[in-house]
Amino acid sequence: MRRPAVAVLLSALLTLTGAGALPTPALATAARPPATSAYTIASATGAGTLAVTSLAPGLTLTSTSISGPNQVNILTADLAEPTLKPRYLNPGTVGATAALTTQANRVGAIAAVNGDFFDIGATGAPRGIGLDNGTLVNGPASGWNAVAALYPAGGGTRGGLAEIFLDATVTLPGGARLTATNLNSPNIAANGIGVYNPLWGDQPRSQVLDGATRSREIEVTAGRVTKVSTAPGGKVANGTVAVLGVNTGADALAGLVVGDSVAVGHAPRGGDGAQVAIGGNLVLVKDGAVTAVAHPKNPRTAVGFSADGLKMWLVVVDGRTTASVGMTYVELANYMKSLGADDAINLDGGGSSTLVARMPGATSVSVRNTPSDGAQRPVPNGIGFVSTAQAWSAIVDNTTAGRFSASANWGTSTYSGQRYGADYRFADPVLASDSAWYKVNIPQAADYEVSVWYPANAGYNDSTPYIVATTGGNQTVRVNQRVNGGQWVSLGVFPLAAGDANVVGVSRWTAGTGYVIADAVRITRA
């Protein structure tokens, strides 16, 4: 399999498309693109467009096309970043499904991918484990023990693959202990005992019997049996645990009556110290070796970790179209290796494969891939990230004292009601360098979103060059000032140096027609 565009990035020639640099050394193209720029990879790899977006400190989204053909979206997480926190996502209960956008927005996640295989068309509950902030939400069914796990590590996080099992017991009045086989599971093991708590939700547990001829359920509140039934219930009340046995598991519960003293306990075994974990069906790569088996091409979702556990990749490959055919397990394993993954696990694919992200300037996540069902499939869980980074922000208007500079060629106007503040500046376009500059005191070197405000008018410039002084050099983004006026318009996310200096400029050097406008800029820590 050819190297993907991501692997080629460091050695390939990058050519900026659709935003050419101005013909002056002061406006040279930066070494690092703004978050929303598209770049073409000039190589013989068969790779296509690569777009890289900085979503938050330590988290980027890469969208690329590779040979196959395949469209791939990749979340790359620096787990050592202390403001980046992993999250297990679900709709709020185990026996439920919801769009991944809903699950991510529920906890304020910046980005996420779908998670585990699940009981589609019935309870909707996942097959493997769900571990959220150290709490076991649901236990793995037998054979569904492989997980992607994340652990606290200093101020950040460390990740890797693990096997986690369920240790659950029901202690009877005489002290005898029964082993429970399931926790909030969509099916109970043959002759087994399942434990269900309020996290299960509203789903009727008659769906988990899997053809069992006998069942018995007891409810335990404050250590006492409060209800006994041969018919499974549904929602479990707060403070109560339901214990459901099937066949010989039901027989083991047969002697219990209301008032009996019963203790129910459960804990994960394995993955010691994991705070977040989600199950998958197949380990793709283990210690750098491909362990995948043959399987047809399909849309895929996978998670991988570097050998030191400090970098994590969440990958979605689109499929089932002529534009993106999907991958086999072996192809996916090799692709994860090419990204740098030393370990990787396959999550649910097909119509479930979804990646969502909150793009710069947005207030909620949106779907960034193309699900093969044509829309998001409701799924039971996902894995993603929240950020605790403080959103430092500063606004500089053309009237801000000591923060705006322009030559006498720039006039002052109050003509448009879309202006920011009392007035704005305007100038005729010329093929010469005569930029108006906004000075900003950047608190620390980091990635920042740069947004601009201008009034829009049919007589204003349709290709206004905005210059951003990044750590890699001046980067130019052109904006059509005839549209989107009277609001903040994002130029992208850029690496800025710490210090008090001119950060954003508006140049008159353009072949576009109409007045060039300079009104206000906003700089926000990404």
TrEMBL record:
Keyword Metal-binding: no
Domain Golvesin/Xly CBD-like: 395-525
Start and end residues of each Phosphodiester glycosidase domain: 217-385
Cleavable signal peptide: 1-28
InterPro entries: CBD-like_Golvesin-Xly, NAGPA
Source organism, top-level taxon: Bacteria
Pfam families: Golvesin_C, NAGPA
Protein name, as recorded: Phosphodiester glycosidase domain-containing protein
Protein source organism: Catellatospora chokoriensis
Record's keyword terms, sorted: Signal
PANTHER family per UniProt: N-ACETYLGLUCOSAMINE-1-PHOSPHODIESTER ALPHA-N-ACETYLGLUCOSAMINIDASE (PTHR40446)
